[in-house]
Amino acid sequence: MRKSGFWLLVLAIIPVLGYAQFDPAGGEPGSLSVKRDDPSLIAWATSVSIQRGLQQINDSALGFADAGTPDEGKGAADGRVVSLGDGGIALLEFDPPFGNQEGFDFAVFENGFAWNGGYFLELAFVEVSSNGRNFVQFPAVYSGDTSSQIENLSYMQPEWYHNLAGKHQAPYGTLFDLDSLPKSDSLNLNSIRFVRLTDVVGCLLDSFKRRDSRGFPINDPWPNPPEPNKNAGFDLDAVGVISGHASWVNNRLMQQGFNFPTLFKTSEPIHFTGDFVWRNIAGSAVNCPKDQAPSAPGLYWVLVYKDGNQFVQKVMVTE
């Protein structure tokens, strides 16, 4: 299901109402993330090319980022990374290509970490292509503060970001669903061969601002401190394909005593036990009674918790 005009309107007025609360950090209840050893990850990029960005976008004398090699972004997530630099680009190819399915389709892994009561995160825009020429970008959203620059190694929270790679700390990858892309005749959702990542510079200087899908500046750590290994910008670990995720989730749930439907009526009673959280398709928490489905029709994520494990299922709520 495509994102409706209603949701675009909601996202557009978020800054007026206060900071949006999207899904939290990897491993926390309600997080839309996947750990790098999750069995639903079954394929990885087969080749990677890198267009390096500067160590600091407004100071060319510092040179280009040069930490890691393109091969660090190929294959399974293992904690070894290649740095893109300010505004740098990684182009990953998948052979064979992957396609759209129910649930999430791929995950991007970076090397962010917990820091100072929050997280240190470096972000990237995400695009996909079937032919390597025409790319469609996921509609990124930033809902945090833009009154002052987030400095290097400063406090951040994943809840401020949506549809941006790197919002989850290692070893968790940020999940992406092809159904959330804008419609494009140039994109074959059943044959995605390329994923392109572009570092979000995060700088609030007027000449270098990067903006989200609504036109709002994105604030993330900047500038990068000069270091011998010049590891500025987004640090790519890997991009992994999710295959059969919805089926795997349903099987695991049924094995543990759940029979979770994929279709509900609005406010329909829920008759099984277990801890679960409702989130709308944009990742924001939904306020509804514990024992019933949401009152508004639409597409939702349900996150179920049992025996220390988290399971994610996309469901439709109809009138």
Kindly describe this structure.
The protein is mostly beta strands and 319 residues long. The protein folds into two domains: 239 residues, Sandwich (Jelly Rolls); 73 residues, Immunoglobulin-like (Sandwich), CATH 2.60.40. It is built from two helices and 20 strands. A hairpin with a 2-residue loop joins strand 7 and strand 8. It is globular, with a radius of gyration of 19 Å.
Topology:
Elements: H1 5-17, E1 33-35, E2 41-44, E3 47-51, E4 82-83, E5 89-98, E6 106-109, E7 113-115, E8 118-120, E9 124-129, E10 135-137, E11 141-142, E12 161-162, E13 172-176, E14 192-199, E15 235-236, E16 238-242, H2 245-255, E17 263-265, E18 275-280, E19 298-306, E20 309-318
Parallel strand pairs: 17-20
Antiparallel strand pairs: 1-13, 2-16, 3-5, 4-15, 5-14, 6-13, 6-16, 7-8, 9-10, 9-14, 11-12, 18-19, 19-20
CATH topology of the largest domain: Jelly Rolls
Helix and strand sequence: HEEEEEEEEEEEEEEEEHEEEE
Q: DSSP helix count?
A: 2
Number of strands: 20
Measured as a percent range, the helix fraction is under 10%
Based on helices, strands and strand pairing, what is the structural class? mainly beta
Supply the CATH architecture of the largest domain.
Answer: Sandwich
Q: Find the CATH superfamily of the largest domain.
A: Galactose-binding domain-like
Contiguous runs where pLDDT drops below 50 for at least 5 residues: 1-18, 245-259
Major sheet strand order: 1-13-6-16-2
What proportion of the residues form beta strands (DSSP E)?
25-35%
Total domain units:
2
**Cα end-to-end separation:** 16 Å
Radius of gyration: 19 Å
